[in-house]
Design brief:
Elements (H helix, E strand, L loop, with lengths): L2 H9 L1 H11 L6 H14 L41 E2 H18 L7 H18 L5 E6 L2 H5 L14 E5 L5 H18 L4 H20 L4 H5 L14 H15 L2 H17 L3 E3 L2 E3 L13 H11 L11 H10 L11 E2 L5 E2 L6 H20 L4 E3 L2 E3 L1 H15 L24 H4 L16 H5 L29 H4 L3 H18 L1
Antiparallel strand pairs: 1-2, 2-3, 4-5, 6-7, 8-9
The structure holds 2-acetamido-2-deoxy-beta-D-glucopyranose (2 copies).
One 2-acetamido-2-deoxy-beta-D-glucopyranose binds next to helix 9.
Organism: Prunus persica
GO molecular function, one term: cellulase activity
Catalytic activity: Endohydrolysis of (1->4)-beta-D-glucosidic linkages in cellulose, lichenin and cereal beta-D-glucans
Length: 504
């Protein structure tokens, strides 16, 4: 709870909304939050849990995934509050965990081994999901069956249908994102386990080739099994360039750099041009970064990559990345996101907190790049220094950790007041240890409808978050607000590591 906010709020009610997010400089324990943000991934684990499992209310689950077709697909992560393994967002979360370690691993100290475990839990699974040449498994679990039940993962009895893309039925977005995840993770493991790293990189190249050679969207190939759940709204071209950028970073081979160069203009001009206050925005390179849209990530990643390269003067990455930053800063003439009165970044659609975390990640990464190259960003007449970008990101993180008008930490287990009724099957039902007897599909309904707090703490889970008026209902039914996801947490891991290293 933040005393400053309260006083300011009483004195000048009108100003309060503006001042709250800024004036309340409650200091946070970023190390504790970092620890918890990584711990969360243990709660999302599918498969056979190791003896090192710290979130012990979770047990083994889905131990026969893939067996009905003779493929081992055991492992990986449940994406959110349900028990489906959606590989598209899982791969993006993995790429972001890996990028977090590559960029900010030095600030993770004793949490680094746990971050590596979190990445490896995904990459071990992706090696399985890509083990048959010509196929990429993109999902395990019938999402309709799963969503119709409120069951613990340990009890699941809904169809664990495996879904794959192939040459005839391609899925370039999900395949290329898996390639990106494998390539980024290969870099993470290079200094630690060279053999594993080489395996990941080899597979990344193979999967990228497949994604590029057989182009198409899994939207079309798998239809209602994947979309409306994780539709590929932005097309698969961004994932192909993103995958190539990561492969270039990991291999330094010109073939991938040429791929990025040849496709970036096509990517940006094929999509709709948008105008904000007279400035044109090509493609998706503005105010958006997440499991679906990679444009801004490509521009920020490549801006840093080309710092050390000669002859890149005419490439669009830096100017695109600058424009992207200008769509986020509240004082910029081309700002195109909203901010709540308390200062939380908002974009339309569900699970808003994912935008606050992914965009904060790019803000701190780009701030470091600006600093290294002695640059600032010009947004019309507004000049933004690296420190300004960091400040915006810090405001988002502090908001998430409780510096907000509601005085609520949106990370489970962090701070005094945090969400108690998150939309998460395992967390809301009694643990297998407490209640070994199976709770079947509809057996969980009473727990779902209960007004009581969840029975198990999914420590570190960051939920979808409050509404644009900064209020939060804490209702399990309201999944837009109360559901955690892996892609909210994954970029936050890096941002917390950054602020942790700054404060210690
Ligand atoms: C991380 O959190 C866990 C669970 O809350 C705790 O047991 C552990 O001591 C923490 N580790 C560090 C390094 O803070
Ligand atoms: C995938 O489906 C969504 C929802 O119907 C649609 O908006 C999007 O354009 C589709 N993407 C592709 C690449 O076809």
């Amino acid at each position: 709870m933040c005393a400053v906010q309260r006083i300011v709020g009483l004195v000048v009610a009108v100003m309060a909304a503006m001042v709250m997010g800024v004036a309340c400089s409650q200091s946070h324990d970023y190390g504790d939050a970092l620890n918890k943000s990584i711990l969360f991934f243990e709660g999302q684990r599918s498969g056979k849990l190791p003896s090192s499992q710290r979130m012990t209310w979770r047990k083994d689950s889905a131990l026969r995934d893939g067996y009905e077709i003779g493929v081992d697909l055991v492992g990986g992560y449940y994406d959110a509050g349900d028990n489906v393994k959606f590989n598209f967002p899982m791969a993006f979360s993995t790429t972001m965990l890996a990028w977090s370690v590559l960029e900010f691993g030095k600030g993770m100290s004793s949490d680094l081994p746990h971050a590596l475990d979190a990445i490896r839990w995904a990459t071990d699974y992706f090696l399985k999901a890509t083990s048959i040449p010509g196929f990429v498994f993109v999902q395990v679990g019938d999402p309709y069956g799963d969503h119709n039940c409120w069951e613990r993962p340990e009890d699941m009895d809904t169809p664990r249908t495996p879904f794959a893309v192939s040459k005839q039925f391609p899925g370039s977005e999900v395949s290329a994102e898996i390639a990106a995840a494998l390539a980024a993770s290969a870099m993470v493991f290079r200094p630690i386990d060279l053999k594993y790293s080489a395996r990941l990189l080899k597979r990344a190249r193979m999967v990228f080739d497949f994604a590029d050679k057989y182009q198409g969207s899994y939207n079309d190939s798998l239809g209602p099994w994947v979309c409306p759940f994780y539709c590929d709204f932005s097309g698969y071209e961004d994932e192909l360039v993103w995958g190539a950028a990561w492969l270039f970073k990991a291999t330094k081979q010109p073939i991938y750099w040429n791929y990025v160069l040849q496709n970036i203009n096509k990517l940006e001009s094929s999509a709709t041009v948008k105008y904000i206050n007279g400035v044109s925005y090509l493609g998706g390179s503005f105010a958006e970064f997440g499991w679906d849209s990679k444009h801004a990530g490509i521009n920020v990643l490549v801006s840093k990559l080309i710092m050390s390269m000669a002859g890149t003067g005419s490439t669009p990455f830096i100017s695109n990345a600058d424009k992207f930053i200008c769509t986020l800063l509240p004082e910029s003439p081309t700002v195109s996101v909203s901010y709540s009165p308390g200062g939380l970044l908002f974009k339309p659609g569900g699970s808003n907190m994912q935008h606050a975390t992914t965009l904060s990640f790019l803000l701190v990464v780009y701030a470091r790049y600006l600093k290294l190259s002695n640059r600032v960003v010009h947004c019309g007449n507004v000049v933004a220094s690296p420190a300004r970008l960091v400040k915006l990101a810090k405001g988002q993180v502090d908001y998430i950790l409780g510096s907000n008008p509601f005085g609520m930490s949106y990370m489970v287990g962090y701070g005094k007041k945090f969400p108690q009724r998150i939309h998460h099957r395992g967390s809301s039902l009694p643990s297998v240890g407490q209640h070994p007897k199976q709770i079947d599909c509809k057996g969980g309904t009473d727990y779902y409808n209960s007004k009581n707090p969840n029975l198990n703490l999914l420590i570190g889970a960051v939920v979808g978050g409050p509404d644009i008026e900064d209020s939060y209902a804490d209702f399990r039914e309201d999944f837009v607000q109360s559901e955690p996801t892996t892609y909210i947490n994954a970029p936050l891991v890096g941002v917390l590591a950054y602020f942790n290293s700054r404060s210690s």
